[in-house]
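May I ask for a protein sequence together with how it folds?
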Amino acid sequence: MYVANVESENDQDNERKSETEQFLEDLQSKTTFPVEKAFTRFDAWFWKRAMKLHHFGGGKKSGYKGFYYVVIHIYTLACFTMALTPIYHAFGATLHLAAVLGFLTMGGYMVLSPFAEIRIFRSKLLAVKMHQGGNEMKSMKETSTSIEMVIIMLMSSTCFFILPAFTFLNAHFIKYPNPALQYTFWTSFGMFIIIFPIMVPFGKWQPLQELHMKAVLLAIKIATKKNAKILFDKNLTPEIAREQLGELHERLIIDLKPELKTWSREVEAMTMGSMLQAIVGILLIHGGATGIFDDTIGYPNARFWLGVVLVIVPLMFFKSMSPSAKPHKIYQDFIDEFKNAEKFGCALKKFDGQLGALEKWLKINAISLKLFGMDIDNELPSKIIAGLVSLLGAISLFVYRITVP
């Protein structure tokens, strides 16, 4: 029975080893993936012709600049800004302030996120993951994932365009005619209708982003397991162990570090966008009391509830940041193995008993996502939410103190 268990464990180790070696080999050879194999015919046509993207992966040698990808984001930002400016002006803000608030509501997302996503499209880890196939690649060729994004866009359009247009905005323009703002609002509506048909293929950025996350997590797991196997192997001499660690660094860690930065940039972009949106929401909630909005000509109830929505949405984003803490968790589990005295001693021998050298190596090879220089762990999203709630409470208290005699 014992022999059978040992053989079973060896078979599992060999299987894991072959999977690891296959991944490392693919990272050197399968660094690109054709667009036409990833999407439906129409989606592939859109990305190749409109986005000028012919393959995923390639790293720095990809050559993909993402110019048209950025253009679509700027176009969409212009639509939102042109639509929200008349609404905020109707709430009682000056024209210049309304334009600034309209830009900030979606500006953080639209200006910052595309540059991180372009780097995702060039990711070699993404290409390797796409070559592996699986359910993710099957769903990529389905339209359902993109339709979800279109539904979100449709709901946003309904909230920002249709409902305001048929409730208070038309009534406001009847009472306070402003042909220029009316033209701006309906022009933005038309611009959205023009771009709406491409939202299905364009929405593929979201499953690509999720697939990139899974590819990075897989690479982290392979890196930490391989490092642990080398460091804690009693039969390896220090020279051979350091040679294998160096080989792993060349074959995987060098490619993994930029991928972590790319993921971090995406999180930072979404964080900045969420914080700017929350600030706009706070201004909408308290704008009447502070004189930012003129409630004598505005619509304080509508302004208040839109502000509440713009505060809640960012809080939901920070709550969903938990996947970003997984890289830190995986690496921390690896570090926790050093609490075992036998494993620690074995790892120390690989560096000729020099504790400083071991600590330096662990520091250089540390794995985690960064949010403006801070490690993203399981507690960071909760801390951010608590900070935003505290900020909202502080602003509310300040407004109360300056408005109530």
